[in-house]
Amino acid sequence: MKLFAFVVVFLTGAALIYSTIDMPEWGDPNSPASTHVSPRYIEKTIVETATPNAVTSVLADYRSYDTLGETIVIFTAGIVCILLLRRSAR
Amino acid sequence: MIREFEDAIIQTVCRILTPFLQIFALYVIAHGHYSPGGGFQGGCILGASFILMAIAYDINAVKRRMSEKLNTLYCSLGALIYAGIGMLCLILGVNYLDYGVLHKILPVDPVKARALGTLGVEIGVGIAVMAVMVSVFLNIASGGEHEEGAVE
Predict the structure, then answer these.
(1) What is the pLDDT of residue B69?
(2) Is residue B53 within 8 Å of B13, Cβ to Cβ?
(3) Which residues of B touch A67 (CB under 8 A)?
(4) DSSP 3-state percent helix, strand, coil across chain A (nearest 5)
(5) Of A81-90, B32-41, B79-88, which range is least confident?
(6) Which residues of B lie inside 8 Å of A (Cβ-Cβ)?
(7) Whose C-alpha in A11, A22, B75, B141 is 20 to 30 A from the C-alpha of B34?
(8) pLDDT tens digits, B113-135
(9) Closest listed residue to residue B57, CA positions, set B1, B18, B5
(10) pLDDT per residue as tens digits for the range A26-76
(11) What is the ipTM of this complex?
């Protein structure tokens, strides 16, 4: 069983590494993310959100659903910590 | 584990440092629109000021200033503010978390309303992160009993 798990993990890792060969070069100006997405945010952030810091406008405005999920993750971590650890004193 | 101990240097430095830490945390949250910062970072600094107090004095020093009930309430309140602003946009007739529509209830134009909506959710994130940091630290440091020197 252990060997089977190792083989599965190894094959999955090999497939993932193989798939990275197809990805665009690091910092390539012609990659899809740099040609459509980033210029749009950089050009329109002041016009659309009145927020000079593009990181904040992407984090909390354009991608606010994602940030909501992050907040729920932190909230869940805190609640689970209380549920697992909290007990009344002897 | 965490016992009250007398160390004049640590306690004095902590007492002087804490208010400045908290002011800086509020600055980081409120100034996230113009400089690096935001709810997560500011909330962490705010939580660190309480943790510093718990380390320099003891756990009761924190519990006197922010009770456990209030802390747990803040955990939920932060997430509720974020989701509530999203629901408010939904009630006003647009998509979830589409802050532009908030100009109907705020005296600003739609673009400024987006910035204010962003600020609102950052405040919610800051409150949640601060409360969770303090709660997780107190629970782990005291083994869940919230007493000084609970775990031997």
Answers:
(1) 92
(2) no
(3) 82, 121, 125
(4) 75, 0, 25
(5) A81-90
(6) 32-36, 38-40, 72, 75-76, 78-79, 82-83, 86, 96-97, 99, 111-112, 114-115, 117-118, 121-122, 124-125, 128-129, 131-132, 135-136, 139-140, 143-147, 150
(7) B75
(8) 999 999 999 999 999 999 999 99
(9) B5
(10) 878 888 878 888 888 889 888 888 888 888 999 988 899 999 999 999 999
(11) 0.85
Task: Look at A56 and B118 and tell me if their CB atoms are within 8 Å.
Answer: yes
Dig out the tokens for A70 from the structure: 């992050």
The two three-digit tokens of residue A9, written as one number: 């993990």
A20: exposed, middle or buried (Cβ count in 10 Å: 0-12, 13-18, 19+): exposed
pLDDT at residue B145 tops 90: no
- CB–CB of A49 and B36 under 8 A? no
The identity of residue B76, as a single letter, is S
Question: Chain A contacts of B138, Cβ < 8 Å?
Answer: none
Length of chain B equals 152
Closest of B126, B103, B95 to residue B31, by C-alpha: B126
Residues in A closer than 8 angstroms to B84, CB to CB, are none
With contact defined as beta carbons under 8 Å apart, do B45 and B25 qualify?
yes
Say whether pTM exceeds 0.95.
no
Nearest to B33 among A53, A68, A71 (CB): A53
> Does the pLDDT at position B88 exceed 70?
yes
